[in-house]
Amino acid sequence: MAPLRAVAALALVTAFAAGCTRGSEAGSAATVSDSKAGCPAVLAKAKAAVKAAEDVNAAWDGPTTGPKAATGKTIVYVAQSMTNPGVAGAAEGVKEAAKAIGWKMRIIDGQGTPAGIQAALSQAVAVKPDGIVLSGFDPKSTAQQVAQANAAGIPLIGWHAVDAPGPSTDPKLFSNVTTKVQDVAKISADWVISQSNGRAGVVVFTDASIPFAKGKSDLIEKELAVCSDVKVLTTSNIPIADASSRTPQEVSALLSRFGTKWTNSVAINDLYFADAAPSLRASGKQGNGAPFNIGAGDGDPSAFQRINSKQFQTATVPEPLSEQGWQIVDEFNRAFAGKPASGYVAPAHITTADNSGGKSTWDPKGYREAYRKLWGK
């Protein structure tokens, strides 16, 4: 969920299940014990799903048909905040794709405040572009401006603007580009089950004040529960706005409360793990050891840095930001041609130090060539 990225990091947690012995290296964590987990069938499915999600060479599975490039179009990208890594990353993708298709593109920064976002969208509507991107904010917070754009016949495309991908009727969006929260939640839980070999003690970090975030953590816990030897030790509810101040104390308390039972953590957003590091270090934890942490969404550059340096985050489920930027441009091209939205949703991917290639973003292969071919460019 993009707005979460703009806010400071939160915390980590992980769990340990009775009867398991882990090495200190994250790479050795998969072989935890010779004893069988209590969910062999679930474990086998989780391992298969994780293996598929970690594939960096998967073939492009996006749209293969669509209208040729419209000419002379101008789109405006209204950003929740360009300091938000997800919003900024998607903007770069749109910029690159707009250049490839031959359109003009302008960015207006809402600077992270309700008033700023409303003003930015008002400005965007006023310049009468061919299309407007609503990036990283709830369109209902700009209902007046959205209504004006709708009335003017300006197609709106969201990036993480509403919960679900695809077209939206309320608010009226031609399409919303995002991964499916259900897919992200499931693969995050599958990773914990797989990484722990079906025996884990898990802390789940969420912000219950945000319905989307609470819904994601509920889905994660539901999926973890299908393995009888994976236990959710606790759900840590830390409001995003309070993350930097509350996370260090919360992590210290969790370590005191659960000790080695805490082997894994799942957070609704990567940034939660940034503030956990000091408390983990102070307790003698190693950056590449338990608790083993996965961020269920986003994959901003700081998360990649922690993962690549093996510092208190082992994995993330990143958004393919540049690819989504190209998809936004393709969706506009379909709107301009009077065609329906593509319906494409990027599959959930897992990044670890073993498959990141040392990079700071997840950038799948094949989409640039595929979209250029669609557009005749």
UniProtKB/TrEMBL annotation:
Signal peptide boundaries: 1-17
Keyword Cell wall biogenesis/degradation attached: no
Domain Periplasmic binding protein: 75-339
Primary localization class, coarse: other
GO molecular function per UniProt: carbohydrate binding
GO CC terms, sorted: cell envelope
Subcellular location: Cell envelope
UniProtKB keywords: Signal
Gene3D superfamilies: 3.40.50.2300
Sections of the chain in a coiled coil: none
Homology family: Belongs to the bacterial solute-binding protein 2 family.
PANTHER family: D-ALLOSE-BINDING PERIPLASMIC PROTEIN-RELATED (PTHR46847:SF1)
Name of the featured protein: Sugar ABC transporter substrate-binding protein
